[in-house]
Amino acid sequence: MRGYTKARFIRRYKRFLADVCLQNGTEITVHCPNTGSMRNCLELGALVWLSCSANQARKYRYTLEFLQTSRGHFIGLNASDANKLVEDGIKSGVIKELSGYSHLRSEVRYGFENSRIDFLLSKEGKPDCYVEVKSVTLLENPVTRGDGYFPDSISTRAQKHLRELSQLAHAGVRAVLVFCVQHSGIQRVHSADHIDPTYAEYLRVAITSGVEVLAYKTRFGLSHPKIWKAIPFE
User: Fold this and answer.
1) Main-chain dihedrals φ then ψ at residue 132, nearest 5 degrees
2) Which terminus has fewer CB within 10 Å in the chain: N or C?
């Protein structure tokens, strides 16, 4: 991928740190921008791509961005990229279900639990639409089936977001949950009942309340990844 530094993955630790080996053999510590478990993502010796900050004051100038697995799958490791990808997908019209709005605001306060919605879409004469985005990178075995799951660890924060979305939908407000799939091997998305059964139950309640669930897959290429196409949520 253009504009990134190649390295080999060694280990992740303390949640936000990882050690990698650059192509010249130098081992460095980099920032790991993902709060999840990254289950089934990290392989010793896997090829990774790093971004480099121009901020000289940063302790760790490099950030872990992408990884290629031994099966050739590409994974976007930066969870915050999901919001950027979905925003681009909305503005470009790729996410057709969220087209037709003239204004997009991010990180808007809402709800009863002091939350911030990822995107609030609006247009004069049209009801508002609240959009919550989640990054999906967990591909469970057997990987040839293409079954992706969210979350990859117990997430009380994600549970809270579902409660908030359910409240909105129950009140007649349009609420949409978008699973942004940052793993090229995932062909469909499921709720991870086997990891966070509470989240799975909240999601079932949310759907019953009227929350819409979308899943969109990322395409990885020579330049920056882009939202590509819708895939099933089952």
Assistant:
1) -110, 135
2) C
The mean pLDDT of 5-25, rounded to a whole number, is 97
- Distance from C-alpha of 83 to C-alpha of 189, rounded to nearest angstrom: 18
Pick the closest to residue 12 from 153, 137, 78, 29 (CA basis). Answer: 29
Of 87, 162, 167, which is closest to residue 121 (Cα–Cα)? Answer: 87
Which of these, 12, 92, 88, lies nearest to 46 by C-alpha position?
12
Q: Which domains does the chain carry?
A: 5-76 (2.40.50.580), 81-230 (3.40.1350.60)
- Each residue of 110-156: pLDDT tens digit? 999 999 999 999 999 999 999 999 999 999 999 999 999 999 999 99
Contact (CB, 8 A) for 179 and 136: yes
DSSP letter assigned to residue 110: E
Report which secondary-structure segment, H or E, holds 18. strand 17-22
Report yes or no: 46 and 60 within 8 Å, Cβ to Cβ. Answer: no
Of 29, 58, 64, 28, give the one whose Cα is nearest residue 46: 64
| DSSP per position, 215-232 | EEEEE--SSS-EEEEE--
